[in-house]
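Hi R.,

Here's the chain you asked about this morning:
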Amino acid sequence: MPRMEIEQRTVTANGITQAVRVAGPPDGTPLLLIHGNCSSSLFWEPLIRRLPPTLRVVAPDLRGYGDTGTAPVNATRGLRDFVDDVAALLDDPALFGARAARPVVVGHSLGGGVAMRLLVDHPERVRALLLAAPVSPYGFGGTRDLAGTPTTPDFAGTGAGTANPDFVARLAAGDRSGEAQASPRAVLRATYVADPGALGTDEELLLDSLLSTKTGDDNYPGTSVPSENWPGVAPGERGVLNALAPTWFRLADELVAVADKPPVTWVRGDADVIVSDTSLFDLAYLGSLGVVPGWPGKEDCPPQPMVGQTRAVLERYAAAGGAYHEVVLPGCGHSPHLERPAEFVAELLALTDVPAA
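And here is the predicted structure, written out as tokens:
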């Protein structure tokens, strides 16, 4: 199969300058790829190489990532700043041709939350969803059950205050070493995939993607406020991790209520340590392991059942007239498109109705 040529463009949309990777013919079947946190459109390049040339692939750098500018993220809007940026690209004829695009939307991790929010806000523009290791429809952390019940009134233990300051500092410094546990390279190897060997010859490219993250109060990780509840911090109103916090990002009921429900495919690895019912990025779970001191116990602060929450919401989506398909990849971590590309491409092409080569 011939490899698609990937071209990077710069587009002004929604009032900001966005960097966008495109591939395939303008009149091809439209596919929108939305990357995750501490990442960029570059993270999709290994996948794009495997796609048939009949697809029109559009993969933007979200604000504050890659080569897109450092426009601030208003966390009180949840992920809507990202959604508005992405939605503004759908009518650009230079990206999708003369027709109004209704793409299959693929969202990874944070990008899965953006994809869900895009469906809620613009249901007429989404042909189908592929959610790859997506954030829970109830946000990241701070909830105790399948209904997304808050653990504390202020969602303590979520948002920017949960970020590892050493990792943030190394990210800002462009650290490419791998010795320290909090170095971006070590985090890429240990948490983005289950087997570091899956990164292969693309490791430097993927590290470039991670290091493109803009740091600060308006981007990653954002601001935090003190809390009277364990572990003493709660989400602020600016920045990426706060936009993911359940204070501001909770769309389960809205997703279920979408009138015109496109099909949803949910792909995840059973060895994911980021989006998991035992997430190593959930302070409640780390508290239960004794890593974060002072944990008040399982009754007061249980780990978030992230996977269970997503399944419960998608089951409600299906019961309300939609359809979803869950794909669990054994031994796979947080990046199914990197770790199990053949299975991932097959699921993607099933949504596009484009035959595999």
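One quick note: Residues 306-319 form the longest helix (14 residues).

Cheers,
M.
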